[in-house]
Amino acid sequence: MPTRAPSILQAVAAAAILLLVVHGLGRFIFTPLLPLLVGDGQFTTSQGASLATWNYIGYLIGALIAIRWHQPAQIARTVPVALALHCLTLLGLALTDRTTGISVLRLGNGVSNGLIFVMVPALVMEWLAARQRINLSGLIYLGVGAGLLVSGVLANPPGFAQTAAARWWPAALLSLPLALWGGWIIVRLRVGAQPAPSVAPTASGRSPLLDKQTRPLFFAYAGAGLGYILPMTFLPMIASIQLGEAHPMVHQSWLIVACTTLPAAWLWNHLGQRLGDQPALMINYATQLASVVFALLLPGVWGIALCSLLMGSSFLGAVLLTQRLGRSLQPHQGPRLSAALIALYSVTQLIGPWLAHEWLGRGGALPETLWLGAGALLWSLIWTSKTPQAGK
């Protein structure tokens, strides 16, 4: 007896759950854990920056694989493998204190994150488009906001005394049931043939990803990766440096980010529908830029709080608006374009922790690295102004 196809609500919810798992419990939980693990003596701040870099390298590898394996059937085969890799790497992180082992595990976790973060939204977006409901695609990213909130709690759960590697157990155990349910829904989605290309294909049978319409969008997204990753990786650590390890804002900064990220997907999805994705994206980058400028010009509690508030409420909007705007410009190759955008995003966000590591190695201060993020977001704002809306 055939299994009934998932409903629209189930598909969107499953995609959101999987982003919660790989992005919240796999990737961004490292941000609130970082000052705790450094305080436990598991590794130093400089080593923590290197560990973040290994995770972003894995994310890039996953996104590059997704460019190659962008067909719906390939996605359905890859999603269970990627989810298994995520769960196994988190279990490994809960069992080792060796920096070399942690590096390998963070690399593997990044691969799983890159695969799921590219493949699942792209597949569901195509599935929704076939049902004339693509306007709901932005709600998939509610999972990222929920994941940040959950990660903020699980990083230091009340009533539990954990240290070093044991701090990973809550995220590892919660990932298992969520990955099973979300993966079961996603692999049952069936997507038909893609619409015919509206532009002439190349000799290889594919139209180019970069053309006069999409090139500014790619340039803008490159800056976005570098601009957001520095505060999103190091904000609690910067609060610890500026205010002291015992200051409440060290932990509260991440909770502010998480709480403001939770409604962000709905907010930017709504603004994109109301104003158009390109104007909404310009507002988004201006908000991200303001968040970093506040952290630079108002060092201390107010700067950290405003950066947390504005970055948390905006960075996710850049992802969903860019993905949807890109698909509207090239609807005939949505999953492939999505994978290419995320791959570029991962390259530039990979540069951020590496530059922080190099700066710290030369005696610089971690908060000073935010100047690079401000410049990158200004770059994104300029190039977004040159990006056309669909049909124009």
Automatic annotation (TrEMBL):
The keyword Membrane applies. Pfam families: MFS_4. This is Predicted arabinose efflux permease, MFS family. The chain crosses the membrane at residues 48-67, 79-95, 107-129, 136-156, 168-187, 218-239, 251-268, 303-325. It comes from the Bacteria. GO terms for cellular component: plasma membrane. Coiled coil: none annotated. Keywords: Membrane, Transmembrane, Transmembrane helix. It comes from Halopseudomonas aestusnigri. InterPro entries: MFS_4 (IPR010645), MFS_trans_sf (IPR036259).
